[in-house]
Design brief:
73% helix; globular
């Protein structure tokens, strides 16, 4: 299988697709408002007619390039190109302002590569072990895993936990449109035969992420024709000496481990990993007061973590069919299109494709390292493209991508509907990630619930009698309880602080 994977990946056409995907991903990541998710979503329909390894390799390149490309605008413009690059702004922006933009870019590119490689190594070694454990899972266990994943998403909503739960339930409800998975009962079609097959994941993703962002940007008409201002930079090498490289090894390792761990947990994403690793490195540093003033430690912590998330997010995807983040959710759709079923048996049934993913990730990381270093002048010029020219082109691509998903005009209409739904979520400050994860996990939740109840003859006790199932339910309950308690404590502290301010004002 390994030899076949080498043959499939290391051929001119597949290598070209990886290079092309990485290049396009970096461009999407470097332009504020675009993202790795949008890049993968828009190019997903193009992979339908490709051979499996070629199509998946293209998506891998888009994923890798899209996550890393966000550092370019984060450093040059102090605007994160992707959510994963939020914490890169903290030190990368100040470095650019004082004339060290070249060094910040070089360090970010180098440690993006290092974080990616560490994540890929972890993916290669952890996935087979986790797959063996997953063979012990029954339908009841998988149901509890899905519930646990949903509770994690809800708890990550912080103070808006209720909104996170609502979004997740909406996603599950949308997945239930059409025919039931076991007995084929028609549900929520309202007499429309177009809804018999339900909603396509590609259509939902294009609508909620791409169309919603286009509409929101269109409302801000004052800045539609604005051109971004470039920052000057000079780059020699990758911006670090050998001594600094050795000193930053613990930083890179800790940040990468955090990124892998966050990636494995469903629904969290690179932005959380970057912020968590940045906070961890700052708190353990000998000079925490320098963070935020422009030091390479902060850039390294952010970029190593958010790129390590890539390998981590594919661990639950390949072994359990659970996407670690939104991009992985789209990637899951790409696997399913090519009849590759993630799960414990994927290494036996589709081993050559799994090893092909590993190799494609490594090749894409190398292309990313070289292409970002050589292409910086081009990327900066791309940031000058006015939005009133860029957004209509993206909108056309969205409609073409939606039509390609099912060759139906109805899917294009659904894209606009989901775009308006995403806009409503934005206005109500409801997170959209739980919606996507709920949609992805909806079928897993329902199918395993019904199968478990059939196996137990309708007894709900099966979910607490099996150790694995009970453990996931307990951890999920603890997660929600801890979040609720934390929110209540924060509200009490805020109320007490408000009372102190009111008292001081009255005394004054």
């Amino acid at each position: 299988m390994v030899a076949q994977a080498f043959i499939n990946v290391f051929n001119p056409y597949c290598l070209f697709l990886i290079w092309f995907g990485t290049m396009i991903g970096i461009i999407f990541g470097s332009i504020p408002g675009l993202s790795a998710t949008m890049a993968v979503v828009l190019f997903l329909p193009l992979t339908f007619g490709m051979e499996a390894t070629n199509g998946i390799s293209l998506l891998v390149g888009l994923y890798m390039g899209g996550i890393s490309g966000g550092l370019i605008s984060a450093i040059l413009l102090k605007i994160p190109g992707t959510p994963s690059s939020i914490s890169t702004v903290f030190d990368g922006g100040p470095m650019a302002e004082r004339g060290d933009a070249g060094r910040a870019l070089g360090v970010g590119i180098l440690y993006s590569f290092i974080g990616s490689i560490i994540g890929i190594v972890a993916l290669a070694f952890v996935s087979p072990l986790l797959a063996k454990v997953c063979l012990l899972f029954s339908a009841a266990d998988y149901f509890s895993v899905a519930v646990f994943s949903l509770t994690i998403i809800a708890s990550l909503s912080g103070k808006d936990m209720l909104n996170g739960l609502i979004a997740g339930l909406v996603g599950i409800s949308l997945k239930m449109v059409g025919m039931a998975p076991i007995d084929a009962i028609t549900r929520f079609t309202f007499g429309n035969y177009q809804l018999l097959s339900g909603f396509d994941i590609t259509v939902l993703l294009i609508g909620v992420f791409a169309v919603t962002d286009i509409i929101l940007t269109g409302f801000d008409r004052k800045h539609l024709s604005d051109r971004f201002q470039k920052k000057g930079y000079n780059l020699k090498g990758y911006g670090v000496t050998m001594k600094e490289f050795i000193e930053q090894i613990p930083n890179a390792l800790i940040s990468s481990v955090i990124g892998i761990a966050i990636g494995i947990l469903p629904g969290i994403g690179g932005s959380t990993a970057g912020l968590l690793s940045y906070t961890m490195v700052r708190n353990t540093s000998k000079y925490p007061e320098k963070f935020g003033t422009g030091i390479i430690d902060g850039v390294i912590a952010s970029e190593a973590a958010n790129n390590a998330v890539i390998g981590g997010s594919l661990v639950p995807l390949l072994c359990m069919g659970i996407p670690g983040n939104t991009v992985a959710a789209v990637f899951l759709g790409g696997l399913q299109v090519h009849a590759i079923s993630p799960g414990p048996l994927i290494f036996d049934k589709s081993g050559e494709y799994v090893y092909g993913i590993y190799l494609a990730l490594i090749v894409s990381s190398v292309f990313m390292l070289i292409f970002e270093r050589l292409g910086l002048p081009v990327f900066v010029k791309l940031l000058d493209i006015p939005k009133h020219i860029l957004l209509p082109i993206i909108m056309v691509m969205c409609c073409v991508g939606g039509y390609s998903a099912g060759s139906r005009v109805f899917d294009v209409q659904c894209i606009l509907f989901f775009g308006l739904l995403g806009l409503l979520f934005k206005k109500l400050k409801v997170p959209s990630t739980p919606l996507i994860i709920g949609f992805i996990l909806g079928s897993m939740l329902e199918e395993n619930l019904r199968q478990a109840l059939q196996a137990s003859h309708g007894s709900w006790a099966i979910f607490v009698q099996r150790p694995i199932s009970a453990a996931f339910l307990i951890v999920g309950a603890v997660s929600v309880t801890w979040t609720v308690r934390k929110n209540l404590q924060e509200k009490k502290a805020a109320a007490a602080k408000g009372e102190e301010i009111d008292t001081s004002e009255e005394e004054g």
